[in-house]
Specification:
Layout (H helix, E strand, L loop, with lengths): L1 H4 L5 H8 L6 E4 L6 H9 L5 E5 L3 H5 L7 E4 L6 H8 L4 E7 L4 H5 L25 H7 L2 H12 L4 H14 L5 H9 L7 H17 L1 H15 E11 L2 H13 L19 E3 L9 H6 L7 E7 L1
Parallel strand pairs: 1-2, 1-4, 2-3, 4-5
Antiparallel strand pairs: 5-7, 6-7
Helix pairs in contact: 8-9, 8-11, 12-13
């Protein structure tokens, strides 16, 4: 079932990067279709534990029946709180695949994809109050411009925001097709699919507070991962990768250079295990096109 639900990216490389101990405790921040989690479970012994996070009801329904697995139906930004609740002080490794699962893109009714006409939703959890329709219908011009520029890296963010504001004065946005119609008037005709993907990505990130959640869980990992433990993060766009890169290098998501003491020494919590980022090979990309933009970074707690 999980192969239909979602094809895991960099599966072998990610699991190897965790350096799994059979009796260790590990975390999968993004259960999704469960591909990575199922592979981790194969490497765990009877005393090993895997804690998985996912706020989506479909992901919960797809969970394996395994007593070693603890499923937490909440956003991973609450990782530290739930570990305290579970009585777990430290873990041996954390894996986070930050990509939206294939299931979400292919489930038309969820409104994640411009390929289908559906309600403009994009919420990972239905408990979230604000959906994508409310964002485009209520955000100011400046707020829309900023989110499309920052989260979608759209050069024509100002024009797109302006067209949305004008269009909603006539008719409120309700469906993905409503948004697609306006965005197509702004984006380059030869690369319209890429442009639409950037527009929808920006809204999805805003609706689900993805950047804030990533910053929070990265900072929590410093306290949670034991010495010698691993942090493995797979990202899919430059915003995410930049945060992860900064964090591994400096211990701070917002700083690209580590601070030094009077003697020129740095004191950072993690050390990268590879000099270069890890990306999927041609064979994997041919098998799973959504792996094309994946970048994986692995760090060890020092």
């Amino acid at each position: 079932m999980e192969q239909d639900y979602h094809i895991p990216v960099l599966l072998k490389e990610a699991v190897e990067g965790l350096n799994i101990k059979p009796d260790g405790v590990f975390i999968d921040l993004t259960f999704g279709g469960g591909g990575h989690s199922r592979e981790i479970l194969k490497h765990l012994g009877s005393n090993g534990r895997l804690i998985v996070f996912d706020q989506d009801a479909d992901a919960y329904a797809n969970r394996p029946d395994d007593e070693r697995l603890i499923f937490v139906r909440h956003n991973f930004r609450y990782m530290s709180q739930f570990l305290r609740f579970l009585g777990i002080d430290k873990v041996d490794g954390i894996l986070g695949d930050l990509g939206v699962s294939s299931h979400h893109f292919d489930a038309a009714e969820r409104g994640f994809s411009f390929r289908f006409d559906a309600e403009l939703d994009m919420r990972m959890s239905q408990k979230v109050d604000v959906d994508a329709a409310e964002v485009v219908n209520t955000y100011s011009f400046e707020k829309l411009r900023q989110l499309f520029f920052q989260y979608g890296e759209i050069k024509k963010a100002g024009r797109l925001a302006s067209e949305i504001v004008k269009a909603r004065d006539i008719k409120k946005f309700r469906t993905t097709s409503d948004l697609k119609l306006v965005a197509e008037q702004v984006g380059p005709k030869k690369e319209i699919s890429k442009f639409l993907a950037q527009v929808f990505q920006a809204l999805r990130i805003e609706v689900n507070h993805e950047m804030d959640a990533l910053k929070e869980v990265l900072m929590q990992s410093t306290e949670v991962i034991k010495e010698g433990g691993r942090l493995v993060i797979i990202s899919y766009h430059s915003l995410e990768d930049r945060l992860v890169k900064n964090f591994v290098r400096t211990g701070d998501c917002n700083k690209s250079q580590a601070e030094t003491d009077l003697f020129g020494h740095t004191n950072v919590p993690f050390e990268a295990t590879h000099r270069k980022i890890i990306i999927p090979g041609e064979e994997e990309i041919a098998r799973n096109g959504r792996a094309r933009s994946a970048k994986m970074r692995i760090a060890q707690r020092v």
